Amino acid sequence: MVFAALLVLGATGTGAWYLLGRESGEGTTASESTEESDSSSPTGASDSAQSVSRTLTSPVGASPWAVALDPSAATAYVTNSDNGTVSVVDTTTGVTRASVPVGSKPAGVAYSTQNDAVYVSDANGRSVTVIDAQSNAIEAVVAVGNGPYAIAADDATNAVFVSNFDEGTVSVIDGRTNAVTATVRVGAKPYGIASEPNSGSIYVTNAGDRSVSVIDAARRTVVATIPVGAEPWGVAIDPAMERAYVTNHADNTLSVVDTVSRSVVTTVLAGVSPVGVAVDSNSSTVFVADHGSNTVTVLNGRSNSIESGIVVGTNPHGIAVDSDGEMLFVTNFKDATLSAIGF
Questions:
Q1: Of 28, 81, 155, 246, which alpha carbon lies 20 to 30 A from 237's?
Q2: Angle, alpha carbons 199-201-204 (nearest 5°)
Q3: Burial of 246 by CB count in 10 Å (0-12 exposed, 13-18 middle, 19+ buried)?
């Protein structure tokens, strides 16, 4: 797979896409956006793999944490953990349409197509804010557990699952009533969370005990616990390949989990301190945000081989992919920016 920076220029308003130079951080011309790096990939990619040295970037709020997409509205929602807001970004122009106050430390974010709503966790406030995606108005603030971080919206059950890092539980919110209907005990320090539609399961990474808890989404019970690497953080699902991908932050690896047997089939070396992970199910391509090496590792999900490393901003953290628009979005924690890459 060959990557090139997405050429979307112009627009006015708060923020806009601009071309970011890899070394200087200064704006560049459009013709420079597809240059390749001569240096070897920091992710361990083969010599033939290509590393993108220019990406399109838009300013957001302080310390952007996670990103969720509403592809039908060409919108990205970015949680800004150090200024208590969510940036609502037009993915076509890079312009921030709105900045919504959501608490003291917004962390996880998920968009629900079932409810046309955005769910944002406040890690300090023990709550989830529900935002109407049409008006950007706050619909509700739901009390959950202690230290809520990641969120997954499960459209099959119209429920929202929230990992409570500081108490080892997952809160389940009814999407119709915005009420907590269950609290599920999982492993130590649950962080990442994702919906697996084939079996109706929720996968939760437990950063404190090197495991993944599998929750039956309908019954709200843990049905399996899968050992993975050290400090598992992010998790993403490829339903077509029947795989879950788990970033192991402390040992710089990615665990590939078979969602049928619920066992690890292989472990792949990623970049430094991997955090977020996303999957393009159309091509079974996996993207890993390497927080410590300022790259995105690109994995072929069919062969479990690394294809390339994409250079992004400083300390990439959250990541999301729009398969329809063939765009990848990455939050750069230290730079207070959102990067966009076309593929």
A1: 81
A2: 145
A3: buried
Specify whether the CB–CB gap between 291 and 275 falls below 8 A: yes
Write down the mean pLDDT value for the chain: 88
Distance from C-alpha of 292 to C-alpha of 314, rounded to nearest angstrom = 8
Whole-model pTM?
Answer: 0.89
What distance in Å separates the CA atoms of residue 280 and residue 316, rounded to the nearest whole number?
Answer: 18
In sequence order, what are the residues at sequence separation of 6 or more whose Cβ sits closer than 8 angstroms to the Cβ of residue 343?
1, 3, 4, 280, 285, 326, 327, 328
Would you mind telling me the total number of residues written for the chain in this entry? 343
> What was the pLDDT predicted at 106?
98
Residue 179 token pair: 């009420």
What φ, ψ does residue 32 adopt, rounded to 5°? -85, -10
Q: Which two tokens stand for residue 99?
A: 């900045």
- Take residue 39 and report the two structure tokens written for it: 């240096």
Average pLDDT over residues 279-292: 96
Residue in the block written with tokens 């062969």: 303
Residues 143 and 134: their CA atoms lie apart, in Å, by: 23
